[in-house]
Amino acid sequence: MVILPAIDLLEGRCVRLRQGDYAQRTEYGDDPLRVALAYRDAGAAWVHIVDLNGARSGSPSPRHLRTVAELARESGLSVQFGGGIKSRAAVEEALAAGVRRFVIGSALARDPDLAAWCFERYPEEAVGGIDCKDGRVATHGWTQDSGRAAEDLARVAARLGARRLVVTDIATDGMLAGPNLDLLRRVHQAAALPVIASGGVSCLDDLRALAALGSAIEGAIVGKALYEGRFSLTEALAAVSMV
Fold it and tell me: What residues make up the domain containing 58?
């Protein structure tokens, strides 16, 4: 299982939100490159970057691509990027900035034609994003309820050609309450696709529990637990390597 340390960007600063609430944020500094370099030096191969401004805006393009480009170039990390990918132009801009994989979230729920184009043209680079609360998919930076069940959108993503999914449980994100294993199992079973888990990881046992799900879980995104020193990235990588 791959560990993807997270960097969430809001107005150029590294932040974490509680349950996706922009009014409940904790700032962890204004130098995302420094954070990325520390992750690289600790053994990370990937970093998961979220453009929070782009996620909730009506703009067709992300806001932080210049920062992302610098981070990818200087750190050498493979970047998985989400937030504001709402057009073909945004996809091309993200890839030109050095993004290795991009997450289609709101567009997957609201623009199936764009999602299908992404999965067909960039089958390895495009990742389906399913963000949900109480089993229902949320869009636009988690500010709007789409009215769809997570499993239903997972099946749609599979039909459109997705090869993997990032699944975020908003209720646990930033709460250090443990991942929603039942949700992850249900989405994996619905789509028959590997899942990258996001939300709730608080301790090494949480990572071991995810890794124990086997091929269903391809990776785990870890944010607040690393920022707050619950464990180090080195410890996380060692823990999952032994499962």
Answer: 2-241
